[in-house]
Design brief:
Length: 192
């Protein structure tokens, strides 16, 4: 009988030892995490800042890696939308080129990049994003797309060209969480 009780006590003792060890490990990890979060700037936290060289680049990484989209990346960072662009998606991003931003009236980009215009900038950028993962030829089947800012963008087909909100799709790049369509114009919400 004494052996039977011993077999009941040993697993409980092992469990308690493991539980105690895990609690200490969590406390140690928690304190080091707090220290690193205190020293790291808050704008550099979240999914967007996780280093991963092994998977297909997400829509944000594609924009960051493109020399033709430095203005778009600066706008995304100023609006604080980095983490939204690395979500699982699928996301379709209509990415205006630097030339598209340069075509705006002088001073427009500089004005939008000011901290006091963060909400307005975020709204404009959200108008360049929609749920889905559709290539250019599939987009030819649409008349309108619902954008992330709760508005619509008109889709037009002219020959082999597809225009979304008046911006011509110049090319497309598949992403790990969707697709990036390079466009020649900044897409502004349609007025009702």
């Amino acid at each position: 009988m004494k052996t039977i009780h011993l077999f009941k006590i040993i697993p409980v003792a092992v469990f308690l030892v493991l539980l105690y060890g895990c609690k200490n490990e969590i406390k140690q990890d928690g304190s080091s995490t707090q220290t690193s979060s205190e020293t790291a700037p808050q704008s550099k936290s979240g999914q967007a800042f996780i280093e991963d060289d092994g998977s297909t680049p997400n829509v944000l990484q594609i924009a960051i890696g493109s020399p033709d989209h430095t203005t778009l990346v600066a706008a995304v960072q100023a609006a604080g939308l980095e983490n939204a662009l690395v979500n699982a998606g699928p996301l379709m991003v209509f990415a205006p080129t630097n030339a598209a931003f340069d075509a705006l009236p002088p001073g427009t980009v500089e004005e939008l990049l000011k901290p006091e215009n963060k909400q307005k900038l975020a709204s404009i950028l959200k108008h360049h994003v929609t749920a889905g993962n559709y290539n250019k030829s599939f987009l030819m089947n649409f008349k309108k797309l619902g954008q992330a800012d709760d508005t619509n963008a008109t889709v037009e087909v002219k020959g082999d060209d597809v225009y979304v909100g008046g911006a011509k799709i110049l090319g497309s790049v598949k992403a790990g969480n969707g697709i990036v369509h390079l466009v020649d114009k900044v897409i502004l919400p349609e007025s009702n």
